[in-house]
Amino acid sequence: MSEIADYVENAVNQWQFARSAVKQKSSIIREILKDSSKPGVINFGGGLPAPELFPLDLIQQSCTNVMREHGKEALQYSLTVGIEKMREVIAWRYKQQGVDVTTNEIQITGGAQQGLDVIGRVFIEPGAVVLTETPTYLGALQAFSFYGVKYVSVATDGDGAIPEDVEIKIKEHKPRFLYLVSTFQNPTGITISESRREQLVEIAKKYNCPIVDDNPYGEIRFDGEDVTSLKAIGKEYVIQLGTFSKLISPGLRIGWIASNPHVAPIIERMKQAMDLHTNSFSQYVIADFAAAGHLDKHIELIKAEYGKKRTFMLDMLKKYFSDKATWTTPEGGLFLWLKLADHISATDMLADAIKAKVAYVPGKFFYSAEQDDSTMRLNFCNATEENIEEGIKRLASVVNSIS
Ligand SMILES: Cc1ncc(COP(=O)(O)O)c(C=O)c1O
């Protein structure tokens, strides 16, 4: 056996892999998920929603309905853009939120992550510049890197990307697009303020630089005032990515790109070459679930539960971390951002944390340029309250042991 393995390894070592494939790194989050799945580890690391809230019975009911009513279509090849019913649900939901998006502007994708890959194919070639927030979503950095992107990060504060810096960097670098996670950002939980939204769109229009707004969390608000969707303000200048991963379940793998009538056909061609179309069965299931009125109710449930967990984690941080760190107070979403004393490396500390049976994602991986390694992302929605308290306590003792 081992001779065969050696033979295969030697052969493979001589193959000429694409440079882009060899350079592609595995996501630190996936690596952490491997370690954190060890028994007893409390995981604040992954972007996992709360499994106890998955609407198992209702999804089962929708699966049955789909097999009965659309079985043959659901199991057959279907259109690249996505099934009509699914796109109608999304367009209708946009309308409810005051955003004018028609079905022909919507492309269904295999989650928002595939949406990012499609956007990469549509806009990026080696050396092309993309502007990102500081920090930004790690999965986007990974997706765009494959296409040889050059990142330029823009200054960001508690109200999101700073328009003056965006304008300077657009003028200097002529980017393909400005990438934002506008609402309850992954990783910080920060939301771009209403006035900044207007300013950013104005700049996008002035310099004809599209905004890609990756928005998995916008509907999960449990505190504060609603903000206007960037898509509503910027219309055809904003390409918005959405997903049902956090609203229902990531396992269904359904997301979308809402663009404009000129870009949608290009997006469709890129997507077609990737996988012909997204899983039809999942699309039918979600369309059925939404048409039966379950989606809005389920989102209300998620908002209530995540809001409680967020508040509980903040209380635990006050209790165990008050003199050791600062943190954001997100009004929605799944994540908050913790900043330790400058001399502490959250990356170096991770091995100790996992030994102490608690996991997080070191913040440094969310930066496209200069990194702040004394930061970390914490997911507050996946653990039970009991585990949140225990996990924060463990984390605090790891920090105490090194500071
Ligand atoms: C900002 C952002 N974009 C995209 C994704 C990927 O989502 P999906 O599960 O829909 O592929 C995530 C998931 O955590 C995310 O936070």
What would your notes on this structure say?
It contains 15 helices and 15 strands. With 403 residues, it is α/β, with parallel strands linked by helices. Helix 6 crosses helix 7. It starts with a helix and ends with a helix. The model has no long low-confidence stretch (mean pLDDT 94).
* Class from secondary-structure proportions: alpha/beta
**What form results from the Cα inertia axes?**
globular
CATH superfamily of the largest domain: Type I PLP-dependent aspartate aminotransferase-like (Major domain)
Tell me the β content. 5-15%
Q: Which fold name is given in CATH as the topology of the largest domain? A: Aspartate Aminotransferase, domain 2
SSE order and pairing:
Blueprint: H1 2-14, H2 19-23, H3 28-36, E1 42-43, H4 56-74, H5 84-96, E2 106-109, H6 111-123, E3 129-132, H7 138-145, E4 150-153, E5 156-157, E6 160-161, H8 163-173, E7 177-180, H9 194-206, E8 211-214, H10 230-234, E9 238-243, E10 255-258, H11 264-275, H12 280-291, H13 294-321, E11 325-327, E12 335-340, H14 346-355, E13 358-359, E14 361-362, E15 375-379, H15 385-402
Parallel strand pairs: 1-13, 3-4, 3-7, 7-8, 8-9
Antiparallel strand pairs: 2-10, 5-6, 9-10, 11-12, 12-15, 14-15
Helix pairs in contact: 4-12, 6-7, 6-11, 13-15
The protein binds pyridoxal-5'-phosphate.
